[in-house]
């Protein structure tokens, strides 16, 4: 439910309307703009909404009430008409620029990480990606360096100035990862780990929420709602490929999800073509497509020596291929009114 108050409404009236909604079980989020205040209310009983709406409209200082019939409220386009822009250490995600997040799938050593960080920055990346904790289907696969990997990411940020995005897998580690990372990544396997979503909702560190490998777009948005309802407004969605019957690619990258998510939601949308295909030879083409359909950022795996990678070597591009990729997507960004 979205409650729009008259421009001349007072703080006391905002509090009155908020208390009215809270008493009926809603989580209340007042938004004070330059000209008027809007109250977003989520979590109340659907059957109660029509009656509550009528009672609110009886208040002289309430201008309009909009009922939202979707199971996600705060993530919905109706909640916020303008796209959300998230600032990460001076990098705006969701604005005019297409943000490039690049780096190795997994932090393997100080030398590997710093070499990659220097190269991706030189070639135009503005955010450094790298996994300190890595979820793996097999328990025998490399699981990441843990806290030592986090420290190396912080060192790379100190040297290059690039903000860091890295995955958090365990709700018990959220506070720790926040000490080193600028964006928390929630991986596909944890998209519906509701305890973890609530925990990252309790902080204000931006969150990159990857789509579950078999998740509908609506389920993806409802997962974002778990974070938003806890008070963290800094959520971005990441399309990373879904599981289909196809076996040539690791996943099927659903580029149609980008304009669909932007039509349904105000949140920034990122595309991960590396996980989306599992093949470095396809990353370049899908980056072009992602920019063309409106992606706000690309999350690209880059490794100086993919053949030596401890994890996911076949999907990581070399710095040379990354350079060509960047040259190709710049004119596409300009053609759709964006810049890199």
Task: From the structure above, extract its key features.
elongated; eight-stranded parallel beta barrel; 2 domains; 18% strand; Alpha-Beta Plaits; TIM Barrel; 340 residues; alpha/beta; four-stranded antiparallel beta sheet; 11 helices
Radius of gyration: 21 Å
CATH classification class of the largest domain: Alpha Beta
Runs in which pLDDT lies below 50 for 5 or more consecutive residues are: none
CATH architecture of the largest domain: Alpha-Beta Barrel
CATH homologous superfamily grouping of the largest domain: Aldolase class I
**Which percent band covers the strand fraction?**
15-25%
Based on secondary structure, the structural category is alpha/beta
Kindly report the spatial arrangement of strands forming the biggest sheet: 7-8-9-10-11-12-13-14
Counting structural domains, the number is 2
Major sheet description: 8 strands, parallel, barrel
Mean pLDDT: 94
The helix fraction, in percent, is 25-40%
**C-alpha termini separation:** 37 Å
What's the β-strand tally?
Answer: 14
**SSE string, helices as H and strands as E:** EHEEHEEEEHEHEHEHEHEHEHHEH
Q: How many alpha or pi helices?
A: 11
| CATH fold description of the largest domain | TIM Barrel
Give the CA-based shape: elongated
InterPro entries: Aldolase_TIM, Class-I_DAHP_synthase, DAHP1/KDSA, DAHP_snth_FXD, DAHP_syn_2
EC number: 2.5.1.54
Keywords: Transferase
Pfam families: DAHP_snth_FXD, DAHP_synth_1
């Amino acid at each position: 439910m979205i409650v729009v108050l008259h421009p001349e409404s007072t703080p006391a009236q905002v509090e009155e309307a908020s208390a009215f909604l809270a008493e009926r079980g809603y989580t209340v989020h007042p938004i004070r703009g330059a000209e008027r205040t809007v109250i977003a209310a989520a979590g109340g009983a659907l059957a109660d909404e029509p009656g509550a709406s009528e009672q609110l409209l009886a208040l002289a200082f309430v201008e309009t009430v909009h009922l939202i019939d979707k199971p996600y409220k705060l993530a919905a386009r109706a909640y916020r008409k303008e796209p959300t822009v998230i600032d990460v250490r001076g990098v705006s995600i969701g604005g005019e620029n297409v943000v490039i997040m690049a780096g190795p799938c997994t932090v393997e050593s100080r030398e590997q990480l710093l070499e990659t960080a220097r190269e991706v920055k030189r070639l135009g990346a503005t955010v450094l990606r790298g996994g300190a904790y890595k979820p793996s289907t097999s328990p025998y696969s490399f699981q990441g360096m843990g806290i030592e990997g986090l420290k190396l990411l912080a060192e790379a940020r100190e040297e290059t100035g690039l903000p860091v995005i890295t995955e958090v897998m365990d709700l018990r580690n959220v506070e720790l990862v926040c000490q080193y990372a600028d964006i928390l990544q929630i991986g596909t396997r944890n998209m519906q780990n509701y305890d973890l979503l609530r925990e990252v909702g309790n902080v204000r560190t931006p969150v990159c929420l990857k789509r579950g490998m078999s998740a509908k777009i609506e389920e993806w948005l409802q997962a974002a709602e778990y974070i938003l309802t806890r008070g963290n407004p800094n959520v971005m969605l990441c399309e990373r490929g879904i599981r289909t019957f196809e076996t040539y690619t690791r996943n099927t990258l659903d580029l149609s999800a980008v304009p669909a998510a932007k039509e349904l939601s105000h949140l920034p949308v990122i595309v991960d073509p590396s996980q989306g295909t599992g093949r470095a030879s396809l990353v370049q083409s899908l980056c072009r497509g992602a920019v063309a359909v409106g992606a706000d950022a690309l999350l690209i795996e880059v490794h100086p020596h993919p053949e030596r990678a401890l994890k996911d070597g076949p999907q990581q591009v070399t710095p040379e291929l990354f350079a060509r990729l960047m040259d190709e997507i710049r004119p596409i960004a300009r053609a759709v009114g964006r810049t890199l």
